[in-house]
Amino acid sequence: MPFISALGYDVFNPLEVLPEMNCDIGTKKGEKIDYAIIKNGDPIILIECKHWAQDLNLHDNQLIRYFNVSSAKFGILTNGIIYRFYTDLAEPNKMDEKPFFEINLLELKDAQIEELKKFHRSYFDIETILSSASELKYVGELKNVIGKEFVNPSPEFVKFIAKQVYEGVFTQKVLEQFSLLVKRTISNYISDMISDRLKAAIKDTTEEAKEIENPTIVPVVEENKIVTTEEEMEGFYIIKSILRETIPAERITYRDAQSYFAVFIDDNNRKPVCRLYLNSPTNKRVAIMDENKKEIVYKISSIDEIYLHGEGLKTAALRYL
Prior knowledge:
Layout: H1 2-6, E1 17-22, E2 32-39, E3 42-49, H2 60-68, E4 74-78, E5 82-86, E6 101-104, H3 110-117, H4 126-151, H5 155-162, H6 172-212, E7 220-221, E8 227-228, H7 230-243, E9 252-256, E10 261-265, E11 272-277, E12 284-289, E13 295-300, H8 310-318
């Protein structure tokens, strides 16, 4: 109901938001949709709600049945956290099997908010939404395909990339070799891009601080002789960028010590995620906490290699959600 209200609809006006609307299917009576948003007496959006822990993949057939016997042009399937938006792009008056738009309220992005605005009562226009629905659908599906290829490149993808740099006969052995190379290259390229953006952001922040406070930036030195270095802070920003995909940024904190730099959740020393050991130029390490809060230590040659341990960092942090 808060979500429907945020879209500008009066949830207490049954002429605008109708709960438990009848969606009888053939001879099967008593079928009801959880909410229907009404305009000029006709439903325009059907909303089927499930428990927050439910897997929505198990319930899309139910929404399809309701959609196909209704005049509504859009259907929403939600567990209160994930919202999937459907329409009938493939075949008129028959709901598509895949949503054209999906949001997760825990990871809401600015671009998604712009798309959500089109469903607001003040801006709602079927033609406007449909004109962008097709593009949204294919962009979403392409992102999934590209994401899968980046994580586990298919033989076809590997061949497509490799043939642009390798002129020899493409044997099974060559395919296996390039499969590893392509996967590693993708990982390094993404890490470099993120690192460059972080460095640019840090540089901008540092220059801002120079203008506002001091002409020079020096390491933070406390009375107990703990020195927080620029490299440690850059390592923290890398870890924060990895974890904020699953945890709000403001919950990710750090504390420095003489021998290591620690990252916590909620600034709570009972919620450690990892420690960075960066004081030695030849023995840099990242130590990720296991379920018993014991260190699993990985040697790194540079802080950029922290990206290689992203999944381990997320696993450690998610224990405190």
